[in-house]
Specification:
The chain is an alpha+beta fold and 427 residues long. It has helices at 2-35, 103-106, 169-183, 278-282, 299-313, 364-369, 373-384, 386-394, and strands at residues 40-42, 55-59, 64-69, 80-85, 87-90, 94-97, 123-129, 135-139, 145-150, 156-159, 162-165, 191-195, 198-203, 209-214, 224-231, 235-242, 251-256, 262-264, 271-274, 289-291, 319-327, 332-339, 343-354, 357-362, 398-403, 411-415, 421-426. A hairpin with a 5-residue loop joins strand 7 (123-129) and strand 8. Helix 7 (373-384) packs across helix 8 (386-394). This is DUF4302 domain-containing protein.
Length: 427
């Protein structure tokens, strides 16, 4: 009996020691959370098929928490603040729980008509803290990792060329939107991720959810889907690590570097996200490059004006635009036009000469043989109007391209070296 009593006493000692350590950890976490005068940003992911929903939080010693949000789900697309309560409890480790209902957070875990809803969490295991004071959290039910970072008071951002400073909570969402749009413009349809010698095509940036497929994948390839969140220091954080098709790497955090592209900041990882070369990006399937008629120079000016006049005279409608895009059907570059009555497109063979130089050659045979009604219309215009014929043939040249950004190109200049130039905008 004495021996049993001795063992029991030793167990009690270790249990008490563990409980004391846990209590101290909870107290330390609470003190740190409540001491942050400007509050925190919870980089919240409800799931990995929706955009991130950053939530602002200010904790008080009396267990009160004030939250703010600006999103379409919990705050009706407007800035809103709501108060509730929180607690730090021990449950297989320290847990941050929001134990009274706050619509700005709890709506993501509420069931919806589909029986599932957004499948978000409102209780979070605290996995630890980082050197910058941020907390690593994990959704208790759905296990999505996320960070709670200090509110970036004083961060700068640019709106319409004017530099501004985050001076209050509401400014955060204005800054977030401005920086997100600068990194991932809404017009940008595709970027390229390279890592460990592998290349992937990334789309969906504007929606807040990335769809990642191998760069040479077919259109029906099944994508890896990841949400992402922006930090105001020009950082991008994936909702979970991307490991590629062969698990040769594990990448999750990126930051805009001096070269203007997103560079991976994870330890021992070499990866980046960019538009790739200007020449390659010009030919990406899905990119429509609309010609800015006011940018035309050289012979392009008179030819375009004559094209407009010819359309009106022949009662073919008003010439609305001309543009370039890749034809996946013909596997060639298409030069297209649209009038108020007709659409047409011509097909070109393309040679990539260097990172920013391509050579175009009009392929009349392919255009005439195409079953596309647009190609048939185009050849009618080609034969009837010298203006269309001459413009199409003038494009058969070696062209130098220059993009407006190494990360997300939305505008390019095109120059044939003979005084003929134009600008095109991603449409």
């Amino acid at each position: 009996m004495g021996l049993n009593s001795c063992y029991k006493t030793e167990e009690d000692i270790w249990e008490d020691s563990s409980a004391v350590r846990t209590e101290k950890t909870l107290n330390d976490y609470e003190q740190a959370m409540c001491a942050e005068e400007n509050g925190w940003v919870l980089q919240y992911f409800a799931n990995e098929s929706e955009q991130a929903y950053p939530l602002l939080m200010k904790f008080s010693k009396n267990t009160a928490v004030n939250m703010a949000a600006n999103n379409s789900v919990s705050s009706s697309s407007g800035y809103t603040e709501k108060a509730s309560t929180f607690d730090l409890i021990a449950d297989m480790g320290p847990v941050l729980t929001f134990n009274t209902y706050n619509e700005l957070l709890h709506c993501f875990s509420d069931p919806q008509q589909d029986g599932m809803g957004h499948m978000g969490d409102y209780e979070f295991q605290i996995m630890g803290r980082n050197e910058d004071g941020s907390f690593n959290l994990r959704g208790k039910k759905h296990s999505i990792d996320m960070k709670m970072i200090k509110f970036p008071m004083g961060a700068t951002y640019t709106v319409n060329g004017e530099t501004k400073t985050v001076e209050k909570w509401e400014d955060y969402y204005t800054a977030y939107s401005a920086i997100k749009n600068a990194i991932f413009p809404s017009k940008s349809k595709a970027l390229f991720l390279t890592a460990a010698g592998e290349s992937y095509r990334v789309s969906g940036m504007g929606s807040g959810v990335l769809n990642i497929v191998p760069a040479d994948a077919d259109e029906d390839a099944f994508p890896t889907t990841l949400s992402y969140v922006i930090s105001l220091d020009n950082g991008v954080h994936f909702s979970s690590p991307f490991t590629g098709d062969n698990n040769k790497f594990s990448i999750q955090n990126f930051k805009l570097n001096e070269a203007g592209i997103l560079e991976c900041t994870d330890v021992d990882q070499n990866a980046n996200i960019s538009s790739g070369t200007v020449a390659t990006y010009f030919l990406v399937d899905g990119n429509n490059w609309r010609v800015d008629r006011n940018s035309l120079e050289g012979e392009y000016v008179a030819l375009f004006e004559q094209m407009q006049s010819d359309c009106r005279t022949a009662n073919y409608g008003t010439l609305q635009y001309i543009q370039f895009s890749w034809s996946s059907v013909e596997n060639k570059l298409a030069f297209a036009f649209k009038t108020s009555k007709f659409d047409g497109e011509y097909y070109y063979d393309v040679t990539i000469d260097s990172d920013n130089v391509i050579t175009l050659a009009f392929n009349q045979e392919t255009t005439e043989a195409s079953s596309s009604s647009k190609a048939k219309n185009a050849m009618v215009f080609y034969r009837q109007f010298e203006s269309f014929k001459n413009f199409v043939n003038l494009l058969s040249a070696t062209l130098t391209l220059e993009g407006n950004s190494p990360l997300s190109i939305t505008t390019m200049s095109i120059n044939d070296g003979n005084g003929n130039a134009m600008s095109v905008d991603l449409n």
